[in-house]
Amino acid sequence: MSLRASRYWAQGGSALDAVTEAVRLLEECPLFNAGKGAVFTHQGTHELDACIMDGRTLGAGAVAGVTRVRNPVLAARAVLEHSEHVLFIGEGAEQFAEAHGLETVTPDYFSTPERWEQLQRALNSDTAVLDHDGAAHSDDPLDPDRKFGTVGAVALDLEGNLAAATSTGGMTNKQAGRVGDSPLPGAGCYASNDSVAVSCTGTGGSLYADAGGLRCGSADALRRALTAAGHG
């Protein structure tokens, strides 16, 4: 993935193109909770979200609750480039994607046996869990099953432009219709040439209530966070 995305720099490509391609490739990999391999809702379906943001213009595009768009990040990019709106949801998002020539699939395309097993464990505990927690078989923080969750990418190109993108299937055993932080500009995804580019993951409700991306986008906030982490 890194080699494919890095070609954009070698060819003088943009940060926006790089994050789009990086996340698209991750959506194609069934190990991650985005695109193929997305987690299941409580109802046994898939609902996918994605967002992309251009740090040069502060423009953003996003989709939420899509069930048939093969690559939600491409739909988000289409919203950014071809719509006056920022966020499309559900059937409206799918119609928009199809109108712009994006590939659609049957909902079972996103299913994998591993994610189905995660749903069964979550159903037994009667909780909605983060994708990587739902996958884990132990409390070991280095459990390899915990590594493959929501995907994101950030980039800085040769022109000094930043971009960010995020894509997810949400939380295992979430109620149908639930939307977290990932498709919300300023929460799960944020980029500004004046500060930083960030792609967030975690329990969405707390992230968008706290405007996680925007808080990280503050230069002072970033500086404080790095200092607290011992990198200042």
TrEMBL record:
Enzyme class, first EC level, given as a word: hydrolase
* Chain residues that bind substrate: R178, V179, G180, D181, T201, G202, T203, G204
Q: Keywords of this protein's UniProt record, alphabetized? A: Hydrolase
**Chain positions of site Cleavage:** G149, T150
Q: Which residues form the signal peptide?
A: none
Q: Which InterPro entries match?
A: Ntn_hydrolases_N, Peptidase_T2
**Active-site residues?**
T150 (nucleophile)
| A Pfam family of this chain | Asparaginase_2
Q: What is its EC number?
A: 3.4.19.5
As one GO molecular function, the record gives: hydrolase activity, acting on carbon-nitrogen (but not peptide) bonds, in linear amides
Source organism superkingdom: Bacteria
What is the protein named? Isoaspartyl peptidase
